[in-house]
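Lab manual, section 2.4: Encoding a predicted structure.

Procedure: take the sequence of the chain (250 residues), apply the prediction step described in section 2.3, and record the output as C-alpha cells. A sample record is shown.
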Amino acid sequence: MEKKTLTKRKLYSLFSELKTSPGDYLTLYMKPSSFPHYIDELSLEPKYSICVTEIRETLNTKAVIQEAEKYNTGAAIFWQENGNKHIVLPPFPLTENKVSLGELDTSLLYETLERKYAIGVVLVAWGSYSIGIFQGDNLVESKTGTGYIHKEHRKGGRSEKRFARRTEEQKKDFLRKVSNRIEERFKNHPLDYIFFGGNRLIRKPLLKECHYLELEAHKISARTLDIRHANTEALDHSLQEIAKPVVFRF
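Recorded output:
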C-alpha cells in the first residue's frame, strides 16, 4: 500500500494513466454518511465479487480508517480485479453514492474538485493569527495580526503562579480578539466550509469562545491543516493544502 497527497494536476494525470489500462473497472463513490458500509449494500454481478471482497477488506485497514476519519469526505474507489486499485479521499465531501461498471468513471470526483467553493480559513498560534476568505481560487478578504502572550516563568513560588495567571488572562484576551476578527470577516460571506490550521490545541478553546463558529459548526472541516505558522504567507498557501486529496494505491 502507498499513500500520497496529490495536487489536482497530478491526480488528473494519474486518471489519464488509469484510463489506458486494459480491463474493466469497478468505480464506487461513497458520501461521508455512507462510508464504509455502502459496500455491504451492493448487489453486483458475479464477475465483480472479487473486487467487492478486496475493497471491503481494504476499507477496514487502519491507515484507510484513520485518514477517512480525518477527512470525513467519503471516498472514490477505482478498482480492477487484475490491475489498478486506488482509493481517493477528496478534500471536499462527495454528495452522492454511485456505482459504475466497465470504463473508469471519474465524473463525480471531477465535479467535486472543480466546484468553486467559498472557504474560510483560520490559522492560529499563540500570539499570532491569520484569517481569510477564498472565493474559488481567489483570496478576497484577509486579516493577520498578533497578540502579546507572556512566556512561561520558571523561577517557582508566588512569582511563577502570578505569571501563570497573567499568561492565562492574556490567552483569553487573545482568543477574544481572534474571535472578534473571525466574526467581522466571516459574517457577511456565505461560506461553504471552514478550515483550521496552526496550533491544533487552540482549536477547541477558540470554538468555545467564538459564537459565530458555534453557529456554523456544521461547516467546519474535520481535519486540521498541516500548517504550523499563522501569517500572511501561510494563509496564501493554505488553499493549496486544503485542495489536496489523499490517494491510496494497492
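Check your result against the sample. The mean pLDDT is 94.
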